[in-house]
UniProtKB/TrEMBL annotation:
It comes from Vogesella fluminis. InterPro entries: Glutathione-S-Trfase_C-like (IPR010987), Glutathione-S-Trfase_C_sf (IPR036282), Glutathione_S-Trfase (IPR040079), Glutathione_S-Trfase_N (IPR004045), GST_C (IPR004046), Thioredoxin-like_sf (IPR036249). It comes from the Bacteria. PROSITE patterns: GST_CTER (PS50405), GST_NTER (PS50404). Gene3D superfamilies: 1.20.1050.10, Glutaredoxin. Residues 2-84 form the GST N-terminal domain. Residues 86-205 form the GST C-terminal domain. This is Glutathione S-transferase.
Length: 205
């Protein structure tokens, strides 16, 4: 059996998507919380050795480290069979993971950061909010036709695209305006083993 160690942080949706995939996929692993306020040079040596750019998440599998959340998700799909979709859906899964990294995985985390931790110029926040709303429109339209992003059911695409939406209120986004997204999140939360990121990513967990 492989030995997996996940380095993450309680405020990182990118870390959360990996931990949730491991939990829902019933993949045994260790979780090590990294305190991001700690200066990079003072972070634990094992984390710094694992994370090429001193960022979370980093996943170490049998001593081999990998980084970047959606690249890790693709590895989990291809090598562990975790929520990889139905036969023939692998390309669509890749497309959604790429969309997330450029769209809602950019707009929502940065808007949340600006509104919760470090205010940005009004024009920057307005641009991020407009982009986030457009991304939610895309998700809502897709989810109006099927329960999950892939027709075959719950997949890593859902975990990736939803990761920061559990904190949408921190970004000043009211998801009631996107009812299909709200229903989709409820379906994800009903999965056996699911936990909110505030619980799953807690330092002591």
């Amino acid at each position: 059996m492989s030995s997996l160690i996940l380095y993450g942080n309680c405020l990182s949706g990118h870390s959360y998507k990996i931990r949730l995939a491991l939990v829902l996929g019933k993949v045994a692993h260790q979780y090590r919380h990294v305190a991001l306020p700690t200066p990079r040079a003072e972070r634990p040596a094992d984390f710094r050795a694992a994370s090429r750019w001193d960022e979370v998440p980093a996943l170490v599998v049998d001593g081999v480290a990998m980084v970047q959340s959606n690249a890790i998700l693709q590895w989990l799909a291809e090598n562990q069979g975790v929520l990889a979709g139905q036969p023939g859906e692998r390309q669509v899964l890749r497309e959604w993971l790429s969309w997330e990294s450029n769209r809602i995985g950019l707009s929502l985390p940065n808007l949340r950061y600006a509104r919760r931790f470090e205010p940005q110029p009004a024009a920057v926040e307005a641009w991020l909010e407009q982009r986030c709303r457009a991304d939610l429109d895309v998700l809502d339209a897709q989810l109006a036709t099927q329960d999950y992003l892939l027709a075959g059911g719950l997949s890593l695409a859902d975990l990736s695209a939803s990761a920061y939406l559990w904190w949408a209120a921190d970004a000043g986004i009211d998801l009631q305006a996107w009812p299909q997204v709200g229903a989709w999140l409820a379906r994800i939360a009903a999965q056996p083993g699911w936990q909110h990121p505030d619980a799953l990513m807690a330092p002591e967990n």
